[in-house]
């Protein structure tokens, strides 16, 4: 469903002197992580064998009746609250009538006149294409509505026929429709990035565009810079990556400018984007709202969201990325880069805060998570919360560094051992593997004297003012200690000994 631009688009004169701007709106479809479908008990699971997660309700057999999944309503409201939308208390589902092979009932159950969430917006940070400066803008939402997904048409399994998989039919969706307020491909990409981050924070959608659980349609029109009327809108369907959304915006903008400047006119149509060529191709002229013959579904009673229901959803809302970013930069006093990195995914932010319940060295915790911990994670294990070491054990390792038990270098070796030996404490791993830092002053003093005696010419150069040789002396002592010496103590001992020579 699309927020209509206007009924009488401005006619653009063909001229090479006019500069144009893009007017962009996005429709983002998010499959909800409910266990069952929105109106049936069929499993809502990706990757099952074709046509196994179906029932007579999904297939629209005569006499079957749908029943709304309450959890889908909860998830839609969560997203609306995260975006600052107004929540519609009295909700009605309508039949959106059209024929397509992957729509087994001949209609789609959706929301027409009364979407569950109205208004709101999402803040994004964008780099200006010309100056490179970062600015913040709010992408305004027209609405968010609930609906069911269609099945999937498969065109490459048979040379002469289209195959149909109805497993996806009936999967609960929210469709997020922006106002036509986006002006650049960069803004579109950042908005979609933020939507994906939000749905993952809220745990309502996994955001996998490659699996189709997050899909995006782009509406693009152009107008002369300074004009206020909207041009004729073209919809580019089913883009499967953020990069392709941005490419499709730029490609469609250029195509429309070329059409106008060559004396043509823009046709309101639906197009498909070819990622291989970077070009879009016409599919069909765009339907109008009347073509769908919306009417309230007679089999579904209205859904009333009570004060108690809404309060219960609000109570379960997690801290959102913007709030967490503020907390990380103020309470934990992290730099902007660290805070942005750690709040990018809810799992990372949760893990960081768990570590910080066991240590007060907040910056060290950030450094370890952004470095070694993140190095052991990939996207899949991160979302499954499979961190290589527990928060408590990582904090214990940081404590060993802070009290001088192990050096920073040795701690890297301890961390590797912690990953493979999850039931052994960091202190025991350091002890058992000879990684405890040597702070025996007498023993280290002997090593210092051995090194200085072995390099008399370098000592003479140091005495003549070549102070950068201090690092070399410390390094040689560290080698003799096989890395076990406390580098701070070695530095002190070498400096004092050189002063006495």
TrEMBL record:
One of its GO terms (biological process) is glutaminyl-tRNAGln biosynthesis via transamidation. Keywords: ATP-binding, Ligase, Nucleotide-binding, Protein biosynthesis, Transferase. It catalyses: L-aspartyl-tRNA(Asn) + L-glutamine + ATP + H2O = L-asparaginyl-tRNA(Asn) + L-glutamate + ADP + phosphate + 2 H(+); L-glutamyl-tRNA(Gln) + L-glutamine + ATP + H2O = L-glutaminyl-tRNA(Gln) + L-glutamate + ADP + phosphate + H(+). It holds the Pfam family GatB_N. Allows the formation of correctly charged Asn-tRNA(Asn) or Gln-tRNA(Gln) through the transamidation of misacylated Asp-tRNA(Asn) or Glu-tRNA(Gln) in organisms which lack either or both of asparaginyl-tRNA or glutaminyl-tRNA synthetases. The reaction takes place in the presence of glutamine and ATP through an activated phospho-Asp-tRNA(Asn) or phospho-Glu-tRNA(Gln). Heterotrimer of A, B and C subunits. This is Aspartyl/glutamyl-tRNA(Asn/Gln) amidotransferase subunit B. It comes from Spirosoma terrae.
């Amino acid at each position: 469903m699309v927020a209509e631009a206007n009924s009488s688009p401005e006619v653009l004169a063909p001229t090479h002197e006019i500069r144009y701007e893009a007017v962009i709106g996005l429709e983002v479809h998010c499959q909800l992580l409910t266990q069952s479908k929105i109106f049936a008990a069929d499993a809502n699971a990706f990757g099952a064998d074709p046509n196994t997660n179906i029932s007579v309700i999904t297939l629209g057999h005569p006499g079957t009746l749908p029943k709304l999944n309450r959890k889908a309503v909860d998830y839609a409201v969560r997203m609306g609250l995260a975006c600052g939308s107004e929540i519609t208390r009295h909700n009605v589902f309508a039949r959106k009538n059209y024929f397509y092979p992957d729509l087994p009932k001949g209609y789609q159950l959706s929301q027409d006149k009364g979407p569950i969430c109205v208004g709101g917006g999402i803040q994004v940070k964008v780099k200006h294409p010309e100056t490179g400066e970062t600015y913040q803008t709010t992408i305004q939402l027209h609405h968010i509505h609930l609906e069911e997904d269609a099945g999937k048409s498969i065109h490459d399994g048979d040379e002469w026929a289209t195959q149909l998989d109805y497993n996806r039919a009936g999967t609960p969706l929210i469709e997020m429709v922006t106002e036509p307020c986006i002006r650049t491909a960069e803004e579109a990409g950042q908005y979609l990035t933020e939507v994906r981050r939000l749905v993952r924070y809220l745990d309502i959608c996994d955001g996998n565009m490659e699996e189709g659980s997050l899909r995006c349609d782009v509406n693009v029109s152009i107008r002369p810079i300074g004009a206020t009327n909207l041009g004729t809108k073209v919809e580019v369907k089913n883009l499967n990556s953020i990069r392709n959304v941005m490419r499709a915006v730029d490609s469609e903008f250029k195509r429309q400018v070329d059409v106008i400047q060559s004396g043509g006119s823009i046709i309101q149509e639906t197009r498909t984007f070819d990622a291989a060529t970077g070009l879009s191709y016409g599919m069909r002229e765009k339907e109008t709202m009347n073509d769908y013959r919306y009417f309230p579904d007679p089999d579904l009673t209205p859904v009333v969201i009570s004060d108690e229901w809404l309060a219960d959803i609000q109570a379960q809302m997690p801290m959102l990325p913007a709030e967490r970013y503020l907390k990380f930069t103020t309470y934990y006093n992290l730099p902007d880069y660290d805070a942005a990195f750690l709040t990018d995914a809810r799992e990372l932010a949760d893990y960081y805060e768990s570590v910080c319940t066991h240590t007060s060295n907040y910056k060290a915790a950030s450094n370890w998570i952004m470095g070694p911990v993140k190095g052991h994670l990939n996207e899949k294990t991160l979302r499954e919360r499979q961190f290589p070491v527990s928060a408590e054990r990582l904090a214990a390792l940081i404590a060993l560094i802070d009290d001088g038990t192990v050096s920073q270098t040795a701690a890297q070796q301890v961390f590797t051992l912690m990953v493979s030996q999850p039931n052994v404490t960091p202190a025991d791993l350091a002890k058992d593997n000879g990684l405890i830092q040597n702070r025996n002053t007498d023993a280290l003093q002997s090593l210092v004297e051995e090194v200085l005696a072995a390099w008399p010419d370098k000592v003479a150069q140091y005495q003549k003012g070549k102070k950068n040789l201090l690092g070399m002396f410390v390094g040689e002592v560290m080698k003799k200690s096989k890395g076990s010496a406390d580098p701070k103590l070695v530095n002190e001992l070498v400096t004092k000994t050189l002063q006495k020579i």
